[in-house]
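My current task is to audit a protein record that another person submitted. I need someone to confirm that the token line plausibly describes how this chain folds. Take the sequence as given and treat only the tokens as open to question. This is what I was given:
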Amino acid sequence: MQTLFKFIHAADIHLDSSLYGLERYEGAPVDDIRSAARRAFNNLIELAITEEVSFVLLAGDLYDGDWKDYNTGLFFVECMNRLAIAEIKVFIVAGNHDAASQITKHLKLPANVTMFSTKKPEKVHIEPLNVTIYGQGFATRAVTEDISQAYPQADPHSFNIGLLHTCLDGKPGHEPYAPCSIDGLKSKAYQYWALGHIHKREVVSKEPWIVFPGNIQGRHIRETGAKGCTLVTVNNQEVTQVEHRSLDVMRWYRYELDISDKENPDEIYTMVEELFQSSIESAQGRSIALRLILTGSCAAHSQLNREYEHWLQEFRGLANSLGSSSLGGNTLDGGTPDNNSAIWLEKLSIKTTQPASAEEILARQDALGGLLRTINNLEIAEHSLSEYKSEELLNELIPLRKKLPPEMLTGEDPYDPLQSALLNDSLEEIKELLVNRLLRSDQDN
């Protein structure tokens, strides 16, 4: 007898966490921004009920650290009760953020929810479907050993799923928590590995299926594009379909717009307007947080840098006129966009360069040409801050670093003046500023 069923695999929910970089934006709907993760989770519940899935897998980081507001937990229980009414089971492993949560330790969960042990791997068998799910959660925030090694071998007569919060073999921007290897996971002979911790969706393997679904709601500018869960269809003990379903209510974009050879700011304004319109269409009714980076060599380079604040407000005004004054985000994949997207310009970066005339000045043999060449050739080597030649620079930067508030040194977009990469980014901006002023001074004379 054939058995056909579906399940949802999601991870990194981070309930009630904020979206970084937007709350300080004047006029932004702060309450809506703060509720984005909760509304995305609501979309997950609705999808599970609509698709009539048999169960939902949550692969860690349901909460966002040491939250003490029990309203977050009560909201989660309410969602689980909605799934219970629909006869949908839920299986959860704790992630590194859950290990720090007080809510996780004291919240009573409904009967349809299984929270796997943090001490050793456990398995649960779903008899009607002949499915066996294996899992172990994080007991502490930093789990550095490979806990997957202790997972049992697959039951050859069952459809086997491994539920695990892990960095796998290491991913940029993520702590090395519960590291393991692809070969190690494959050796267990499970048909599907439901992983969590990495916020970018990735199908690591198809034989067997090893999947990171990504998080359900992007929280900052490094989490761009569609965010959601993975919907899996199984027929006769074989995976027949694995598909991404978007759940996010606000979508992040990072665009580099090449404005080479543009003669005046009006042309650039038109290009930005077209980009914003394209973003609205691709977001399908969701609201948008966008970082715009202008690149290329153009005649408007000096004016853009000189009048940065003016153009920042111009583009923000353009975004406001194209979008709505409130967040959308009730559209799931396959739904009808409401064409009511709000666009919030999170940041404007001008990375343009001088056109050919500037290159001619660089080739001049007078004092201005020499100074521009010196500025243009400045670069801070990756490890130079620890070398003897940079001791004087280091002595200048260390006191500056001590004066910075602690929150500037950590978080999603840290500013640490001792990092050579950041210094080089700042150096590029300083070089452009000096070049622009020197060129204007030369033209005035």
User: Anything to note?
Assistant: The first helix runs from residue 30 to 34.
